[in-house]
UniProtKB/TrEMBL annotation:
It comes from the Bacteria. One of its GO terms (biological process) is cytokinin biosynthetic process. It catalyses: AMP + H2O = D-ribose 5-phosphate + adenine. Belongs to the LOG family. Its EC number is 3.2.2.n1. One of its GO terms (molecular function) is AMP nucleosidase activity. One of its GO terms (cellular component) is cytosol. InterPro entries: LOG, LOG_fam, LOG_family_nucleotidases. It is an enzyme of class 3 (hydrolase). NCBIfam families: Rossman fold protein, TIGR00730 family. This is Cytokinin riboside 5'-monophosphate phosphoribohydrolase. Keywords: Cytokinin biosynthesis, Hydrolase. It comes from Pedobacter antarcticus 4BY. The keyword Lipoprotein does not apply.
Amino acid sequence: MTSEEKIRSAFENKNWQEIKVTDSWSIFKIMAEFVDGFEKLAKIGPCVSIFGSARTAETNKYYEIAVECGRLLTDRGYGVITGGGPGIMEAGNKGAHMNGGKSVGLNIDLPFEQFHNKYIDHNKLLEFDYFFVRKVMFMKYSQGFIVLPGGMGTMDELFEAITLIQTGKIARFPIVLVGKDYWGGLVDWITNTMLGKEHNIHAEDLNLFRVVDTAEEAAEHIFRFYDKYVLKPNF
């Protein structure tokens, strides 16, 4: 019987003691993922994360933009971190790998669409069961985010980064959204409704991210930021 089946059986039979024991032992699995991630990523050096949909085809213009982002970043000595899967993630790793740069993949075990791509350096692939542990790795070891069109996971990573910077929980780093057509409606809603109508954020919060259309603009925003600020750990 798998761990998941044991937990399901415990709930069905209302065996609360067994559920409590299972929860306690899961702490060690969580700790192991943190330790493995910290040990491996601390040695890699400055990196930029590239986010986007796992479903993006190679023929999509945003796939090509992500490849070019990877190339431009590694030209300047940055490594590239992605979620390790297909689509935009594959494209970012591909650009870094083909250019001889550091190509890192933080893969997550999912039942349907996630499998690690072939462009990740063999010694820079990490596997995760827990989304929240994986997100800590992105936040701690990325000196910038380049966010291409994606789904719920991409939104989750984007808004977590903005929230942590906004609240001062991590040091500020550049966040670039690529694709004005894709992100325009969201940015309009944030500006007109979240800020303008409901006053749920401050006007300066709009400066926490930049919207561009090309790989060159995205990479240049990262480079300009660190021409002004010193590279340092996020937390």
